[in-house]
Design a protein that fits this description.
alpha/beta, 5-stranded mixed β-sheet, 8 helices, 37% helix
């Protein structure tokens, strides 16, 4: 019966049936406010349930069938799943303007290694991406860890150290903070790629294509800044 219902769903208009979407904390607060108004305007019948959790948890729910799709940051182990990339971005080093390195054009690995770099706690894939991009894999045990990017940013504002933020979060987190400087890394990017992951047998491929189209469209303005 479930397979028959799924087959019927594939012949309906995209995003016209309920959908459960998982998303990780370093993407959800910065992507969804941009995209959801467009979804509501173009697909008014869409009933979207959002589940936010770390990568391992939402992917586990996806594999168990508890979620229809997941917004994930690559590289990450998505073995057995299909991924549909829609955005590539770099990480930027965020420091207080009182920092003597605040006016350098690019941040080298040596400068990052010498800094008091604060990252998200273990389990957040952004930390793995940051350490990999900066070749600082052994640094996590020496850095302050937090549970959210907004907490890290407030610590930078308080001159407690520096952090790394993805481009998608800069406007929301750094906008209005004149005391902060965002410095590109010398290591070439992109440092991570955003994608939608689904099970191979998920019947709602048109839903995923519609999501990817709107995400690309809404992020295009960000790419121009």
């Amino acid at each position: 019966v479930e397979e028959l219902n799924n087959l019927a769903d594939t012949h309906r208009e995209p995003l016209s049936t309920p959908m459960t979407l998982g998303v990780i904390p370093t993407i959800g607060p910065y992507l969804l406010p941009r995209a959801l108004p467009a979804f509501q305007e173009r697909y008014p019948r869409l009933k979207l349930e959002i589940v936010e959790d770390q990568s391992a948890e939402v992917l586990d729910q996806l594999r168990r069938g508890a979620l229809d799709a997941v917004i994930i940051a690559l590289p990450y182990d998505c073995n057995g799943l299909l991924t549909f990339p829609f955005w590539q971005e770099d990480l930027l080093w965020v420091v207080h303007t009182e920092n003597e390195q605040a006016h350098i054009p690019k941040a080298s690995l040596e400068e990052l290694a010498r800094s008091h770099l604060m990252l998200l706690k273990d389990g957040h894939c952004l930390t793995e991406h940051a350490l990999s991009a900066c070749k600082l894999e052994n640094m996590s045990s020496h850095s302050f860890s937090a549970t959210s990017l907004s907490t890290l940013l407030q610590l930078v504002v308080a001159t407690m150290g520096s952090t790394l933020l993805p481009e998608i979060a800069l406007e929301q987190l750094v906008g209005g903070h004149d005391e902060l400087a965002c410095i590109p890394l010398e290591e070439p990017g992109p440092h991570r790629e955003l994608a939608i992951a689904i099970r191979p047998n998920y019947p709602g491929t048109p839903n995923v294509e519609a999501l990817v189209h709107i995400f690309k469209e809404e992020l295009r303005t960000l790419a121009k800044k």
